[in-house]
Design a protein that fits this description.
The complex is a heterotetramer, with 2 copies of chain A, 1 copy of chain B and 1 copy of chain C.
Chain A (H helix, E strand, L loop, with lengths): L1 E8 L6 H12 L5 E14 L4 H16 L5 E7 L1
Antiparallel strand pairs in A: 1-2, 1-3
Chain B lengths: L2 E5 L6 H12 L4 E4 L10 E4 L13 H4 L3 H10 L3 E5 L1 H8 L6 E3 L7 E9 L15 E8 L3 E3 L2 H9 L3 E6 L18 E5 L5 E4 L17 H10 L8
Parallel strand pairs in B: 1-2, 1-3, 3-4, 4-11
Antiparallel strand pairs in B: 5-8, 6-7, 6-9, 9-10, 10-11
Helix pairs in contact in B: 1-6
Chain C lengths: L7 H6 L4 H11 L5 H10 L2 H4 L4 H4 L9 E3 L6 E6 L2 E9 L1 H6 L1 H17 L4 E11 L5 H21 L3 E8 L8 E11 L14 E6 L9 H4 L20 H15 L4 E6 L4 H13 L2 E5 L12 H6 L5 E6 L4 H10 L3 E9 L3 E6 L2 E7 H6 L25 H9 L8 H4 L10 E3 L7 E4 L6 E7 L2 H6 L1 H17 L4 E10 L6 H21 L3 E7 L3 E2 L2 E2 L3 E10 L15 E5 L10 H7 L11 H16 L3 E6 L4 H13 L3 E3 L5 H5 L6 E5 L2 H10 L4 E7 L3 E3 L5 E3 H16 L2
Parallel strand pairs in C: 4-5, 9-12, 17-18, 24-27
Antiparallel strand pairs in C: 1-2, 2-3, 3-6, 4-6, 7-10, 7-11, 8-10, 9-11, 12-13, 14-15, 15-16, 16-21, 17-21, 19-20, 22-25, 22-26, 23-25, 24-26, 27-28
Helix pairs in contact in C: 7-8, 7-10, 8-10, 10-13, 15-25, 18-19, 18-21
The chains are: A alpha+beta, B alpha/beta, C alpha+beta.
The complex binds adenosine-5'-diphosphate and magnesium ion (MG).
Chain lengths: 79, 235, 723, 79
């Protein structure tokens, strides 16, 4: 079972990378781009086959290591 | 003073710290491999700079979870002194021994140059050998030194006087230009409430010898070793 | 690829010509297997075999009493006193850096670090010599950004300070930037590790990262020019892992402190193939490898893929019998892969086994002895066009323009991204002195390090231009007060099958040899990068020189920053040579004339004089005069020292912007005394000014403020990169 | 319309981050974690309201700037 953990900076935490990407897109002539946020994605190959258990495990990995909840929020998707 | 330097895989400024400590105290610090857990005999634990675990994922994140951190936590709980420099500061923040987090530099580039720091308080064992408001020079070398904490935390740090160093101009003014990495309120270093844990991004340990361009970092190491007891045999 | 029949057509795809393939058949006495063909093709590639350059490289002077190991080992080794040796080398990563600038540059740094620590040295400094295309070309910015980030990303993480280098821009590098990385390490002179395998039956051990399908045929690719189809030829790009490299450095040094190692070599280009073939070949033994034991990152890898993989951060070690346990414990402590993958034999052959079958069996001696060696035809470079009319100088305006031009503008934007202080031994950081000064931990000794080459001189006259590069390296070391010891050279040229390019190469080697001999400054290591061409047009010939010198006492090093109240004295003859000068190029658009002549006797006389005056404590600051001439040198000393000056002398462009060689500007308390001493020593000198004040007052009466100078100097890189 | 661009290293390209995260999870005692891959996610706020046009625009941004197609592949999702 594959779990995908997406980690984004919390609203209110400055995201210079997202801002820089937004500016670069504008320089490249892409119009109509509003806010840009940059985050991380971690794909985990899990031995667990039960979706609920897999999601729990991934969430606990995220809380413990993959995200810093002082600045980041995360989401787990299974696939 | 018995000092130990924690070496995580990827740490690279352990020798710089050792040189600074030995110069100040006359005694070689002990190198602590990250799997060791017995830190009972130490007065000061230093977590040096570098790229622990490659700084992959987030700077300091993986080191903060390693077994030695439990012993460091216990040392801190006993009222022991802990100094985290650069990656060491990031690790202390990730381990929540100090509040806040260190984000990517606002410029998104690695910063390697001297900065100027204003010493915000001197009634701590780390800063006692400086003058209050003194401006010192120290090298920067980091990609993620942008100090962040929510407003309540920042207000508390300011209110309790737990900001140790701020980025300033040579004349002492805390301007945006002096704050190259974009840190909240120009914060370069902070203290725990008991002022025995200090984390800072710049590298005072690389400026303790006139040959390397200055000695502005030396009082930090002299101060802490004086506070924790001279090692000259009588003590 | 694996299904194709092994024949001459496939050999051609692998870069072997008909004659070379015939030689393979002759050695093997049968058609080679795919794996064997792969081994021949990489070992006989230009990159590994030096087949076009070897005949010329042999003519370089490589000996001096202080040289411990010259070319032929992983890096050069020189004695620096107090029982210590400096180990250093420079290497190119040009092609990979064009394909993927970040990873190309990063893995370039990783590769050269391994060449140095594999000999037992702790790396103490990195430098990099970079050439980029026209700043106006939009691609240039992307390449500069990636290369600088890549060098910083790798060097900063491994914790080796990046202390110097050089950068040029020229349209000739538009499709082919040059990334030359240099590493310097320190080891006890009696604990140097070599690569020649010995001891029949001894275990062959693989350590570091796992093997993947990275960069297969990278060495062959580095030996071919880019056509329009460069994209499609691309092998899987190698990604560097500086964290693992850091662990590998520590683990190898820890193992080297024991007596477990017989021989050790990094896996560089052509990975497992070149390391095993070279180690066994040098030791005159055979080697047997069992690929099933190789730590693998991917599944289903063939023998061919494993033998040709260029995965990074790997080393091959021959251990003493019974030392496996000690070694394994160290690598496991550092969480690195460790596997015994073979042993030495007395067969003189390399035998490669995989999944129960023998995938390759090649006699090593013929693989080496019968490697192709070419005396390629050479043609002399045409003389450069004559100089046009020399314009009248407007000293102030011309200076401001020159110090802001891409080749002279401040490089602070670059070095501000490199950790230059880690290790706590950096006495002179980038920009502080003509050579970086790095102290030896625990000693008073310091190393002086520089890289130099002025490609436009080499293009105009390859012999004189290459001699100039060596002379400038020698001069930059001398200007800090250090004693020059030896060089490493990184020869970047176009397609050697073109007589004109081969002629440039041969002449450049002759120029290097002439300068090294005259200056007692031997070549101890180096690297050749050919086929630096895109769509048939070659780069400027670029023999980058990495120089190393030593100072007995680090505290004696001088920098280039002048202080107020000092006399500025020109050491060396009055300038006048404007051929190939930046002043004519930037001001009048002329890239013409002969480059400045290189008088090595004068170089030595003037340099020895300056070094002695630094040692006596008389010289407070010193800067060599090179690109841009005398006025640029003075302006750089003033900006660094944050002082103005009043200058005296003629007002013509030849005097202030001529690029004559063998010259220094020194700042001293008493200029007259220095001039008198120089006259006694037969060294021409001239008092050119006195420092002080807020601005630079020129002989024509005009004054430029320091602020004007500085803003002109500091504008270029941020304007190119941050807008 | 929001477009989410996920950028991962291509298969076969070494992923030092993923490898280190995998090791760290194992040290933390999380069992049953196989391969770990680390990537980037970029969330774009687009003015475009037509899904096809929005996806095309995001793909072209990814090719031009957000992904380094020499070593990375990308995927665009709309939300
Ligand atoms: N790529 C680079 N990396 C680090 N430092 C560099 C680089 N390029 C130039 N520098 C530093 O910039 C300074 C000036 O370089 P350069 O113009 O080559 O000096 P010179 O012509 O006097 O030899 C030197 O200190 C040099 O080491
Ligand atoms: Mg130079």
């Amino acid at each position: 079972m594959k779990a995908v953990v997406t980690v984004m900076l919390k609203a209110g935490v400055l995201d210079p990378q997202g801002k820089a990407i937004g500016q670069a897109l504008a320089h490249l002539g892409f119009a109509g781009v509003g806010e840009v946020r940059a985050g991380k994605v971690i794909e985990l190959e899990l031995a667990e086959t039960d979706p609920v258990a897999a999601k729990n495990a991934a969430e606990s990995m995220a809380r413990k290591l993959l995200a810093n909840t002082v600045i980041e929020s995360f989401r787990v998707d299974l696939s | 003073m018995k000092a130990g330097i924690v070496v995580f895989p990827g740490i690279n400024r352990e020798r710089d710290i050792a040189i600074a400590l030995e110069r100040a105290s006359g005694r070689k610090p002990r190198m602590i491999w990250h799997r060791e857990t017995d830190l009972q005999s130490l007065d000061l634990i230093v977590i040096p700079g570098g790229f622990s675990y490659g700084d992959y994922l987030r700077c300091g994140a993986m080191a903060a979870q390693s077994p030695v951190m439990e012993s460091i936590r216990a040392h801190a709980a006993r009222g022991g002194h802990v100094l985290g420099v650069c990656n060491g500061f990031q690790i202390l923040a990730e381990a929540q021994l100090l509040p806040g987090a260190l984000l990517r530099n606002a410029s998104l580039r690695f910063l390697s140059m001297d900065c100027h720091l204003r010493v915000e308080r001197t009634d701590t064992d780390f800063t006692a050998h400086y003058q209050r408001g003194q401006v010192i020079r120290a090298p920067l070398a980091h990609g993620d030194g942008n100090y962040f904490a929510d407003d309540a935390t920042l207000d508390r740090l300011e209110g309790e006087g737990l900001v140790a160093f701020r980025y300033v101009e040579p004349d002492g003014a805390a301007t945006a230009k002096a704050n190259r990495n974009g840190s909240a309120r120009n914060i370069a270093g902070i203290l725990s409430p008991n002022r025995r844990i200090m984390g800072l991004m710049p590298h005072p340990e690389d400026l303790v010898d006139p040959l390397m361009g200055g000695t502005d970092g030396a009082p930090l190491f002299e101060g802490i070793s004086a506070a924790l007891g001279s090692d000259r045999p009588a003590a | 690829m694996t299904n194709k029949p092994v024949n001459q057509a496939l050999a051609a795809e692998f870069g072997l010509n008909a004659e070379e393939y015939a030689r393979v058949l002759d050695i093997m006495g049968r058609a080679p297997t795919l794996t064997e063909l792969g081994i021949f093709s990489v070992m006989w590639s230009e990159h590994c075999s030096y087949k076009s350059s070897r005949v010329w490289l042999r003519t370089l002077p490589t000996r001096a009493p202080w040289v411990i190991h010259g070319p032929g080992e992983n890096a050069g080794v020189v004695a620096i006193g107090e029982g210590l040796a400096a180990i250093f080398k420079m290497e190119s990563h040009n092609h990979p850096s064009f394909i993927e600038p970040y990873q190309g540059a990063a893995t370039g740094v990783g590769g050269i670090l391994r060449d140095v620590f594999t000999m037992g040295a702790r790396p103490v400094a990195n430098l990099n010599a970079l050439r980029f295309g026209d700043p106006k070309n939009p691609v240039t910015r992307r390449i500069v950004d990636g290369v600088v980030r890549g060098i910083g990303g790798y060097g900063n993480c491994v914790g080796v300070p990046t202390v110097g280098g050089e950068i040029n821009f020229h349209p000739a590098y538009d499709g082919n930037p040059l990334v030359n990385a240099m590493t310097v390490g320190i080891a006890p002179a009696d604990r140097i590790f070599l690569s020649a395998a010995a001891g029949i039956g001894n275990p062959v051990v693989y350590v570091g990262s796992k093997t993947g399908r990275d960069g297969i045929h990278g060495a062959t690719m580095a030996s071919a020019e880019f056509g329009a189809d460069a994209e499609s030829k691309r092998p899987t790009v190698q990604v560097g892992d500086p964290f693992v490299e850091k662990l590998l450095i520590e683990a190898c040094l820890e193992l080297m402190a024991t007596d477990a190692i017989v021989a050790i070599q990094d896996m560089g280009a052509a990975g497992l193939t070149s390391s095993s073939v070279e180690m066994a070949g040098k030791g005159g033994v055979g080697i047997e490898l069992d690929l099933d034991q190789v730590p693998q990152r991917e599944t289903g890898m063939s023998a061919y893929e494993m033998m040709l993989s260029e995965s990074q951060e790997r080393m091959l070690i021959v251990l003493r019998p019974g030392a496996e346990g000690t070694a394994r414990a160290i690598f496991e402590k550092w969480e690195l892969d460790f596997a015994v993958i073979g042993h030495l034999t007395d067969t003189g052959r390399i035998v490669v086994r995989h999944q129960g079958s023998v995938e390759a069996e090649i006699p090593l001696a013929p693989l080496a002895d019968q490697a192709p060696l070419y005396h390629r035809p050479t043609a002399p470079s045409p003389a450069p066009g004559p100089l046009g009319a020399i314009p009248a100088a407007r000293l102030g305006e011309d200076l401001v323009k020159l110090i802001g031009c891409p080749d002279l503008a401040s490089r602070a934007w670059v070095w501000d991204q490199y950790d230059s202080t880690v290790g706590g031994q950096t006495v002179k950081r980038p920009g502080a002195a003509d050579a970086a000064i790095v102290k030896v931990d625990g000693h008073r000794l310091a190393l002086a390090l520089t890289t130099d080459c002025t490609p436009r001189y080499v293009a105009a006259d390859p012999e004189a231009g290459a001699a100039q590069a060596v002379a400038e390296a020698w001069r930059n070391i001398t200007a800090t007060g250090a004693r020059p010891l030896a060089i490493t050279d990184n020869m970047n040229f176009g397609n050697p099958e073109k007589p004109l390019v081969m002629g440039q190469f041969a002449a450049a080697v002759a120029g290097i040899a002439r300068a090294c001999t005259a200056l007692d400054f031997p070549v101890v290591s180096g690297n050749v990068s050919l086929y630096n061409e895109t769509a048939g047009s070659p780069i400027l010939p670029t023999p980058a020189i990495g120089g190393l010198g030593v100072l007995e006492d680090a505290a004696r090093a001088v920098g280039l920053a002048a202080a107020p109240g000092q006399d500025l004295v020109l050491v060396g003859a009055d300038p006048s040579h404007l051929g190939q000068s930046l002043w004519l190029r930037e001001g009048a658009g002329q890239e013409a004339g002969a480059p400045p002549p290189v008088d090595l006797a004068a170089e030595r006389r003037h340099g020895d004089f300056v070094r002695a005056r630094i040692a006596s404590g008389e010289v407070r600051a010193c800067h060599d005069v090179s690109d841009g001439g005398l006025l640029v040198a003075v302006a750089e000393m003033l900006m660094a020292g944050n002082t103005g000056a009043v200058l005296a002398g003629p007002t013509d462009g030849g005097f202030w912007f001529g690029e004559d060689q063998a010259r220094y500007v020194v700042a001293v308390a008493d200029g007259a005394a220095l001039v008198a001493a120089a006259t006694g020593a037969g060294v021409p000198t001239r008092l050119v000014g006195r420092t002080g004040g807020e601005g630079l007052t020129l002989p024509d009466g005009a004054t430029i403020s320091l602020a004007t100078l500085r803003s002109a100097h500091e504008r270029f890189f941020p304007a190119l990169m941050e807008t």
